[in-house]
Design goal:
CATH class of the largest domain: Mainly Beta
CATH superfamily of the largest domain: Protein-arginine deiminase, central domain
Number of helices: 6
CATH topology of the largest domain: Immunoglobulin-like
Number of domains: 3
CATH architecture of the largest domain: Sandwich
Low-confidence stretches: 278-282
Length: 450
């Protein structure tokens, strides 16, 4: 639950404030109290929930309609569950009384306008955005877990793209939206509130390098999707239109989890009060206070890891290389593989010499896996850093629509034998020490010691 915001009352004039649906607001009944007041009474609009919190060791709840004692431990808390239709349409009234009761010594009025501000993602992992009662700021593994999942947008959906889609700061294809996780900002309430308040979408600095967010402006053209967050932009003032109740966004991952990145990222939206506020300094000077968020809502994503496909799965495609060495061409081998592929009902892909530069070790060059989220999954080829004759084949020939690409380069050192993917494999599903590994365990190794 969001922290409570305190609103001070005044005996001289009504206080106007904004509250957020579902968020408690503390009414400061002690900020301006008439002389001699010992008790108070509170009432309000039927659409408001009003309750009094108190320390039972110091205060006894009054019977019937008797007023509450004006003890410092007594607090008045209000909340609303729906957005207001009009400005200041919710009212809280506080009356102050002396010790003997009688006529009120003073009255305060609080006029509230409720707005519905909520940032929502597929927290329940059902493939679509819906409001959830779960904690959106946390992420938990497992069948009973929760939290949205983000895909690294590493395929290439448009022929106009020079590389994987994640390299593009602009949307190159509407199909690319299917690879992104949807996110919806609810922003319901009177338009006048949003004239004096800003909605600001933010990403923490480390996370802004690993995600990119597009805002749907309405329409079906590529220009109707605007990049609003990413490596070069950490915040965005939401351009809410009059009467608009929801703003849709699409989020893409830019980096896979690895040793330096556990995969968790977060985004938040804040409702900022833009009204001019002043403060007096110690020297008597007057200055403007910085904007303060009235409310902040945060959602968490976990970037889906690259999952290696076990070799126990039925084959879909078989990749082989056409080469020539001192013994001639390997045509017989290719013919044998063609018959084997036909028998296994899988597609045979022959990499010609122009693409392999006489490098036959295609299993050392690449490994296949996939990424998966509730709304989408697709295969991803992992390109080895061995960088021999086949170094460009995965990028140029396999990367494409709904077929992603990822690689890792070794900084400050050359690749070793363990970086050849013939030495990389994954087991079938296995249990070890009482722990289940439904996706198997990755195995990496070299030849036996001599």
């Amino acid at each position: 639950m969001a922290p409570r915001r305190a609103v001070k009352l005044s005996l001289k004039k009504p206080t106007c404030a904004v509250c957020v649906a579902g968020v408690e607001t503390l009414v400061d009944i002690h900020s301006d109290v008439p002389k001699g007041a010992k008790n108070f009474d509170v009432s309000g609009s039927s659409k408001l929930d009003i309750f009094v919190a108190y320390d039972s060791t110091r205060v006894t709840e009054p019977a019937g309609k008797a007023p509450w004692p004006l003890d410092t431990s007594v607090e008045v808390i209000v909340s609303a569950d729906k957005a207001s239709k009009d400005l200041n349409d919710l009212k809280v009234k506080v009356a102050y009384f002396g010790e003997e009761g009688g006529e009120a010594l003073g009255r305060s009025v609080l006029l509230l306008t409720c707005v519905d501000v909520s940032l929502d993602v597929d927290t329940d992992r059902v493939g679509k955005v819906r409001r959830s009662g779960r904690d959106k700021k946390t992420w938990r593994w497992g069948p009973e877990g929760y939290g949205a999942i983000l895909l690294v947008n590493c395929d290439k959906d448009s022929d106009n793209s020079m590389g994987p889609d994640l390299q593009n700061s602009q949307l190159m294809s509407l199909e690319d939206l299917q690879d992104m996780s949807p996110m919806v900002l609810s922003c319901d309430g009177p338009d006048e509130v949003f004239h004096s308040h800003r909605l600001v979408l933010k990403a923490p600095w480390p996370d802004s390098r690993r995600v990119r967010v597009f805002c749907a402006l309405g329409g079906d053209s590529l220009s109707d999707y605007k990049q609003v967050l990413g490596p070069q932009r950490r915040s965005y003032e939401v351009e809410r239109q009059p009467g608009q109740r929801q703003v849709p966004f699409y989020v893409e991952g830019l980096a896979f989890p690895d040793a330096e990145f556990p995969g968790l990222v977060s985004l938040s939206v804040s409702l900022m009060d833009t009204g001019v506020r002043t403060a007096w300094g110690l020297g008597g000077g007057r200055g403007t206070l910085p904007e303060a968020p009235l409310f902040t809502d945060t959602v968490a994503f976990r970037v889906a890891p690259w999952i290696m496909t076990p070799n126990t799965q039925p084959p879909l495609e078989l990749y082989v290389c056409s080469v020539v060495d001192a013994h001639g061409s390997n045509k017989k081998f290719l013919d044998d593989m063609a018959r084997l592929a036909l028998k296994a009902s899988c597609k045979l892909v022959i990499c010609p010499r122009v693409d392999n530069r006489n490098d036959r070790w295609i299993q050392d060059e690449m490994e296949f896996g996939y990424i998966e989220a509730p709304h989408k999954s697709f295969p991803v080829v992992f390109d080895s850093p061995r960088n021999r004759g086949l170094r460009d084949f995965p990028y140029k020939k396999i990367l494409g629509p709904d077929f992603g690409y990822v690689t890792r380069e070794i900084l400050y050192a050359g690749p070793s034998g363990l970086d050849s993917f013939g030495n990389l494999d994954v087991s079938p599903p296995v249990a070890v020490g009482g722990r289940e590994y439904p996706l198997g365990r990755i195995l990496v190794g070299d030849c036996f010691p001599k």
